């Protein structure tokens, strides 16, 4: 059952890619390669890795997010400490956006090394042999891109809400961030599985320029028009995530932190919040992109065949 959910998650993301491909007139051949090398089809079990085959994947244009969390207190405390260290580094090495509200602080110009430090420390959750986010593979990909000057300039956003009550407020350095609520889909004691944790508006925090924004908005409207008609397309006032990633400079990565209310996991009484994250990768041209190797599960191979 876990694998069906796993492939369903990949299917949702690939469907979005396919809609964008149709809107811009890209070729199906490129889309086929995207399916074969999708990072959501990787595995971590040593036994399954021996049975799998090596593939190369790229995160170019992807939105990767944590959708499974270890429910143990030690893991939650570790990831909270990792986020606090990241915020401290961002304050020291990046530029704080003074226009950002207290519950949604933003830093620009954070060096890639700070993002790599975060990924090397963060402990992702898993369902059996399925690891939904492989932080080591993410770090490997970012490091590879850095050799060509890509993903060198990062924006960090802590996507909290306006604090409502003291017990639903998290102190992160000089900031007070309201915890987000996410529904638990797994309902097991070992892990918390909210599924999607992202907010679509969170990717629209990096300036891509007026011309690129107009192009991105036009593509988004064309997708909506194809699905729902011109009247609905006319209501669209901002680009979607895939379009923003496509037109963002290849140097600029986006890391979004999501502090989640611990009460969302009703099978534990631990008061330490879950600290999720998402990475929004810009689209990187094929010649400049450097894919990294991983192992495709046999289920993935059959799906791709």
Structural commentary:
It contains ten helices and 14 strands. With 305 residues, the chain is α+β, with helices and mostly antiparallel strands. Strand 6 and strand 7 form a beta hairpin. Helix 1 packs antiparallel against helix 2, helix 1 crosses helix 7 and helix 7 runs antiparallel to helix 9. The radius of gyration is 19 Å and the shape is globular.
Write the layout of secondary structure elements.
Elements: H1 2-24, H2 28-36, H3 46-51, E1 53-57, E2 63-65, E3 69-70, H4 73-93, E4 95-96, E5 106-111, H5 112-121, E6 126-127, E7 130-131, H6 135-146, E8 153-158, E9 169-172, E10 175-178, E11 191-192, H7 210-228, H8 230-234, H9 241-247, E12 252-260, E13 274-280, E14 292-296, H10 298-304
Parallel strand pairs: 8-12
Antiparallel strand pairs: 1-14, 2-13, 3-11, 4-5, 5-8, 6-7, 9-10, 12-13
Comma- or semicolon-separated keywords:
14 strands, about 300 residues, two-stranded antiparallel sheet, alpha+beta, 10 helices, six-stranded mixed sheet, disordered N terminus, about 40% helix, single chain, disordered C terminus, globular
- Give the helix tally: 10
Widest β-sheet, arrangement of strands: 2-13-12-8-5-4
Low-confidence stretches: 1-9, 29-37, 298-305
- Secondary structure tally: strands: 14
Structural class by SSE content: alpha+beta
Calculate the mean pLDDT score and round it.
83
Radius of gyration, CA atoms, in whole angstroms: 19 Å
Describe the biggest sheet? 6 strands, mixed
The topology string of helices and strands comes to HHHEEEHEEHEEHEEEEHHHEEEH
State the shape.
globular
Q: What's the end-to-end separation, in Å?
A: 21 Å
Portion in strands:
15-25%
The share of residues in helices is: 25-40%
